[in-house]
Amino acid sequence: MAEKSILITGGAGFIGSHLVRYFVNKYPNYSIFNLDKLTYAGNLENLKDIENAPNYTFIKGDICDRDTLKKLFEKYGIDSVIHLAAETHVDRSVNDPLEFVKTNVIGTLTLLQVAKEFWQKDNYEGKLFYHVSTDEVFGSLDLDGGYFTEDCKYEPHSPYSASKASSDHFVRSFYDTYKMPIVISNCSNNYGPNQFPEKLIPLFINNIRHNRELPVYGKGENVRDWLYVEDHVSAIDLIFHKGKIGETYCIGGKNEWKNIDIIKRVISITDELLGRESGASLKLIKFVTDRPGHDLRYAIDCTKLERELGWQPSYTFDDGIRKCIEWYLNNQEWLDQVTSGDYKNYYDKMYKGR
Ligand SMILES: NC(=O)c1ccc[n+]([C@@H]2O[C@H](COP(=O)([O-])OP(=O)(O)OC[C@H]3O[C@@H](n4cnc5c(N)ncnc54)[C@H](O)[C@@H]3O)[C@@H](O)[C@H]2O)c1
Fold it and tell me: Ligand 1, residues 7, 8, 9, 14: which to mutate, most atoms within 8 A of Cβ?
């Protein structure tokens, strides 16, 4: 019998696929169940290398679907949840906030209710609900002032961050009200392979390659704290195993960049790797009208995670960003596929009728 039966939601997405691979490989004695609806952002190609691993099962399904969740808990004896499934793109949330409430709020609440139903009878013995969230719930910082910590008040500005904030509150409410063992982490911006190319870094690498415009919001003054995706995953691993029940942990890269500066850095490395003259693609930059409600600066103080759990990121930004750009340039087929929509057929090819 498996030591743990872990339900990872959103495991076909960007961070989720890195997390699923890491857990499947590192913990052969755990059974890993990946529940994903396969929206435009979910792609089973991300997990091709482990799809036949004996401790891995993929289930196509929606976290809002109570019956599917109940069947999963029943059939597989789920004892832990690591919840990543979400709508995640801020621009999409500006256009269609309701979709974000459905998955991020109602989906999270549905999952909490099913977990409670199955776990409460065992007095939650050996159970854990781990909720993966974002630093965007804390709002925005001044350019020269302070950092987000676990004690910051919630002040979300976009429909995306408002929906994630709401989900965080529901998770905490299940700890306070029903004594469900929960833990929450709030992480800064991730970068790395397999991120859907609507997000800044993969979008720009792809556009540079194809000599397309690079749309920069406002003057590119907004500041983000960037973390390589594998370092986020190692933090999740530590928090999952050693985090204190009921606590929040902030995860960040101590790696702040103004958008315009990180864009210039991406241009410089991408041009170099493509054999172009240095700075040749700078001319592709196009400043466009700023996103409404665009937060100025995010930056995380992750002292608690470092001090209490001994976490340290393993990638320097120089190494991480080069590895990331190389991956996109070497995986043009992946980029073409996810932008063409063909990959939606992958599930049917691979899993239907199994
Ligand atoms: N990307 C970041 O920089 C970042 C930073 C901090 C926290 N996070 C959080 O980490 C989590 C994962 O982010 P990501 O960037 O990997 O997202 P993503 O958009 O790449 O992937 C989301 C995944 O969730 C799945 N999904 C969406 N709705 C679903 C539903 N109703 N039921 C089941 N599955 C569904 C999608 O198919 C997709 O595979 C999110 O909760 C996000 O808020 C992301």
Answer: 14
CA torsion sign for 68, 42, 254, 104 is negative
Which residues in the chain come in under a pLDDT of 70?
A: 341-354
Does the C-beta of 165 come closer than 6 Å to ligand 1? no
Which atom of ligand 1 sits closest to the CA of residue 187? 6
Q: What's 129's DSSP letter?
A: E
Which domains are delineated in the chain? 4-195+227-255+294-316 (3.40.50.720)
Q: Are 118 and 76 in contact (CB under 8 A)?
A: no
Q: What tokens appear for 198 in the block? A: 């609507």
Q: What is the pLDDT of residues 249-307, one digit of tens each?
A: 999 999 999 999 999 999 999 999 999 999 999 999 999 998 888 889 999 999 999 99
Q: Which two tokens stand for residue 317?
A: 């930004």
Which pTM value belongs to this model?
0.96
Which active-site residues does the annotation give?
135-136, 160
Find all residues with CB under 8 Å of 354, minimum gap 6, and list them: none
Asked whether the CA dihedral 28, 245, 123, 133 is positive or negative, the reply is negative
Nearest CA to ligand 1 atom 7: 134
For the stretch 206-245, pLDDT in tens is 999 999 999 999 999 999 999 999 999 999 999 999 999 9
Residues in a beta bridge with 128: 80
Within 13 Å of residue 17, how many CA atoms lie on the same side as its CB? Answer: 20
Q: How far is CA 158 from CA 172, 186, 199, 247, 320, in A?
A: 21, 16, 16, 25, 28
CA gap 277, 264 in Å, rounded: 14
